[in-house]
Amino acid sequence: MFTERLWLSVEDIWESYLDHPFVKGLGDGSLEVDKFQHWLKQDYVYLVEYARLMAIGAEKSPNLETMNLFTNILHGTLFGEMELHRAFSKRFGISEETLLETEASYENTAYTSYMLNHAQRGDAAVVAACLLTCAWSYNYIGKHLKANYNHDNNPYKEWVDMYSDEEFTELNDMAIKLMNDLAEGKPERELKVLEEIVVTTSKYEYMFWDMCENKSDWKKVIDL
Ligand SMILES: Cc1ncc(CO)c(N)n1
């Protein structure tokens, strides 16, 4: 399967997430709250752009089954995953309006613009390649944290639970199925393009963790 080949080219990058201080801090609960809040806000506006990918994928779907997969992932993102963000923001006394007013950091915009640009000019397989890393790598991290840390007193327990649970795993399985279905029968030249997108989004994921660890935003670049 195509995703088995993809795994070999991203494995090292994904391993590095597990050593990242932000991810480790989520696992053992030591992550500073302000860094987590930075993730919460940046990720909320990230997910709005990410959801657009699935809408583009639905529009470009060659058949009903593919359309069902794209829209199921779209629904799961808006009404499943984003509920986690809304629940955490309530705990911190941040309203949804405030979350949505977040100015995306340049790293955030670079990542979503990269995906949306490829999705808009590519076919449904390209859209599937754009969205794959997000779902798959968070599920990979969630499962790793669930298996390797004790979460009894971890304030981020719900984070680990959600990204490792059955529902999110199903969402990820749909993203993997989409990729394999749509890559089937493609010539090597096109598979290489899809692979490059998955490797690049994997690097962007690392950058996103770093952005949250450093609480990077436009204010740090130009404070006007
Ligand atoms: C940056 C980023 N990547 C992936 C996911 C998982 O969908 C997320 N919520 N945020």
Can you summarize this structure?
This protein is mostly helical and 224 residues long.
Describe, in plain words, how this protein is organized in 3D.
By secondary structure, the protein is mainly alpha-helical. The chain has one domain: Heme oxygenase-like (Heme Oxygenase, Chain A), CATH 1.20.910.10. The protein is 82% helix and 0% strand. It is built from 11 helices and no strands. It has helices at 2-18, 21-28, 33-60, 64-91, 96-100, 106-121, 124-148, 157-164, 166-183, 188-213, 218-221. α1 (2-18) packs parallel to α10, α2 crosses α7 and α4 packs antiparallel against α9. The chain is globular, with a radius of gyration of 17 Å. The termini are far apart. Bound molecules: 4-amino-5-hydroxymethyl-2-methylpyrimidine. Residues 43, 46-47, 81, 134-135, 138, 205, 208 line the site of 4-amino-5-hydroxymethyl-2-methylpyrimidine. GO terms for molecular function: thiaminase activity. Residues 9-213 form the Thiaminase-2/PQQC domain. Pfam families: TENA_THI-4. Pathway: Cofactor biosynthesis; thiamine diphosphate biosynthesis. This is Aminopyrimidine aminohydrolase.
List keywords for this structure.
224 residues, mainly alpha, Heme Oxygenase, Chain A, 11 helices, globular
- The assigned CATH architecture is Up-down Bundle
CATH hierarchy, class? Mainly Alpha
Low-confidence stretches: none
Describe the main β-sheet briefly.
Answer: none
Structural class: mainly alpha
Q: What is the H-and-E element order? A: HHHHHHHHHHH
Radius of gyration: 17 Å
Enzyme class: hydrolase
Subunit structure: Homotetramer.
Pathway: Cofactor biosynthesis; thiamine diphosphate biosynthesis
InterPro entries: Haem_Oase-like_multi-hlx, Thiaminase-2/PQQC, Thiaminase_II, Thiamine_Salvage_TenA
